[in-house]
């Protein structure tokens, strides 16, 4: 990439922030629980863990905890690999794809899914994934082995999945480098106001209120949180450096797409994500300091 083609500062992060929700809608969709209930999987944590880890195949809890990073081992081990005695990973992969189809149709409508803009967004997002790399990126690499769906809205969802997991794998590298354990990563992110609220952490990650409180105490000892649980200047600087490091580790797909492509994908994905959010894709209390 020449200097004249360099991406504007944080353009890749901005693009990711509007593409990622197009993948994430499946986690909060009633459709996913209907699909997995038909497979015989009804426990909500089991649905979440099975749907995201299915691309690994029949692995045990260890690789899943390592890749997910901020889930409690005991929660994962309660369901993985036992869930694969109920339904196969292949069944779970197919169920998640059906969920993506049903959810996007409900949130965006058939006309949007069949639009030239949807097809263009899918082409751009898939082109960006050509710049992703596999080394050290288990979740990205596992999902990259799956077939690209033919329908444009599902191809876009699949590409969003790859871009999400590629960035997420890099973010785990940055968290380890920063010395933040899984609980400290969660509560420090929550303190920014951009992470999950404690209600959702308790419901999805397996940690107790006492364990989350202990994580806050450890961050206070490091000078990263104050007595009220707010980030100190050092804490703010650390979280900013984490995002900057993640940007550096995640630059390749967006550099591959190029400045014009990133700008256009950001424009298209913003419209889709805004419409999905307005249609109730995400819980109102999902994010924040609560």
Would you tell me the structural class of the helices and strands? mainly alpha
Fraction in beta strands:
under 5%
What is the tally of helical segments?
16
What average pLDDT do the residues reach? 96
Q: Care to count the β-strands? A: 0
- Major β-sheet profile: none
Relative helix content? 55-70%
Globally, the shape reads globular
The low-confidence runs, each spanning 5 or more residues with pLDDT under 50, are none
The ordered string of helix (H) and strand (E) elements is HHHHHHHHHHHHHHHH
Roughly how many Å is the radius of gyration? 19 Å
Distance between termini? 43 Å
Number of domains: 1
Pfam families: HTH_67
InterPro entries: HTH_67
Protein name: SalK
Question: What does this 3D model show about the protein?
Answer:
InterPro entries: HTH_67. By secondary structure, the chain is mostly helical. It has one domain (21-278). It is 67% helix and 0% strand. It has 16 helices and no strands. The chain has helices at residues 11-24, 30-39, 44-53, 61-68, 73-79, 89-108, 110-113, 116-129, 138-144, 152-178, 182-191, 198-204, 209-221, 233-249, 251-257, 259-278. Helix 2 (30-39) runs antiparallel to helix 6 and helix 8 (116-129) runs parallel beside helix 10. The longest helix has 27 residues, at 152-178. It is globular.
Main features:
290 residues; mainly alpha; SalK; HTH_67
List the helices and strands and how they pair.
Elements lengths: L10 H14 L5 H10 L4 H10 L7 H8 L4 H7 L9 H20 L1 H4 L2 H14 L8 H7 L7 H27 L3 H10 L6 H7 L4 H13 L11 H17 L1 H7 L1 H20 L12
